[in-house]
Specification:
Layout (H helix, E strand, L loop, with lengths): L1 H27 L5 H9 L5 H10 L27 H11 L5 H13 L13 H36 L4 H15 L2 H12 L23 H39 L2 H8 L4 H19 L1 H11 L2 H6 L5 H11 L2 H29 L11
């Protein structure tokens, strides 16, 4: 097992390099980079990102007003005609674009290997501090949605498998399919309209994970306030999450229940509970565990992206989304690197969990 773990860890290195290389290559051809963001702001066409930069997030050396309206200076940047070339060169140096792409890429790889993610282009804060600042929100959403979906899905899936074809199985399948078909963000909007001060009831808050008077609350009051804020986002996300895992659990248990060893166990006089949890459970849960890394990463980042936007939860999903729009490349690449690394580690942990559930599995006897 030690050799297998070592091989998997070593394989993480080329995997991360490949992810960063492809993403870096794509970025080179993407229009509207950080230099263009600042140029657009100066020429009166900029958005929030450039506004944060020129408004005090970074020092432009006071050259933003160096126009030369009498001369049209050719530039590789859209909208840069008429700006002082020295100012453009200063912007390139500030963002690190004065160096060749390969040099920038290898410097980024070296820095990331030491977990040095640099500073945000448009925020006066280091990237790692920014990520740490946003992480509690995403951890709260990711952990609770994963826990809730598994706590609901596994018992429900087992019961559906045991009562396959019954009225219970039929109507729960209808609920599960409908839940899976409804987009999470649409359900989130419906919840807002119904329960968050829309057209009906004003029972739940719309913004953040805590109230303004959080520091003044007792311990019990803080717990209640925290889950009060989490109720609507978690409800919106758990709808489709538990649907997928429920059907996966049911089908996995059905496959195992129909196998010969189950018939043999019943013939020996074992109770249905002993057969189900003593023999079937261990084998059937393998495929459910296999889906855990994807479910966790999805809930932790991708799945919470729209939910964070809708409920104004300032987490990593919202941070990554805004960073892509703003072309804040240090934040974009840091998010990509961290979540790719987390995904690879969780995948390895998932494989190791296989051996804990079923000792018959031996990864040493097969290729990685």
């Amino acid at each position: 097992m030690g050799a297998y773990i070592l091989r998997r860890i070593l394989l993480m290195i080329p995997t991360l390099l490949g992810i960063l290389a492809v993403s870096f290559a794509v970025i080179q051809f993407a229009p509207g980079g950080p230099v263009e963001q600042v140029i657009a702001k100066i020429t009166g066409q900029g958005g929030d990102a450039a506004g944060r930069l020129t408004g005090g997030g970074a020092d432009l050396g006071g050259t933003g007003g160096n126009f030369e309206p009498g001369s049209e200076i050719s530039s590789k940047y859209r909208g840069a005609q008429g700006l002082d070339p020295e100012f453009i060169a200063q912007l390139e140096k500030q963002f690190g674009f004065d160096r060749p792409p390969l040099e920038r890429f290898f410097k980024m790889v070296w820095d990331y290997a030491r977990f040095d993610f640099g500073e945000s282009f448009f925020r006066d804060i280091s990237v790692i501090d920014l990520i740490i600042e946003k992480m509690p929100v995403s951890i709260s959403i990711g952990l609770w949605i994963t826990l809730l979906s598994y706590l609901i899905s596994i018992p429900l899936g087992i019961r559906k498998a045991v009562h396959d074809g019954s009225a219970f199985d039929v109507w729960t399948s209808a609920v599960v399919i409908v839940g899976y078909a409804i987009p999470g963000f649409l359900f989130a909007i419906l919840l807002m309209v119904l329960f968050a001060g829309g057209s009906f009831w004003d029972w739940f808050p719309l913004r953040g994970l805590t109230s303004d008077n959080w520091d003044q609350l007792s311990l019990w009051g803080k717990i209640v306030d925290y889950f009060w804020h989490l109720t609507l986002p978690l409800t919106a996300m758990v709808l489709s999450a538990f649907a997928t895992t429920t059907l996966l659990t049911k089908n996995s248990f059905l496959d195992e229940i129909r196998k010969q060893y189950v018939t043999t166990a019943r013939a020996k006089g074992l109770s249905e509970r002993q057969v189900l949890y003593g023999h079937v459970f261990r084998n059937a849960m393998l495929i459910v565990i296999a889906g855990f890394p994807g479910a966790f990463i999805s809930a932790f980042f991708t799945g919470s992206l729209l939910i964070e936007n809708i409920f104004s939860l300032d987490g990593l999903g919202l941070l990554g989304f805004r960073s892509v729009l703003d072309r804040d490349y240090p934040v974009v690449f840091a998010n990509l690197y961290i979540f790719a690394l987390i995904g690879l580690i969780v995948s390895l942990i998932s494989d190791l969990t296989y051996t804990w559930i079923d000792p018959r599995i031996d990864f040493e006897r097969r290729d990685v």
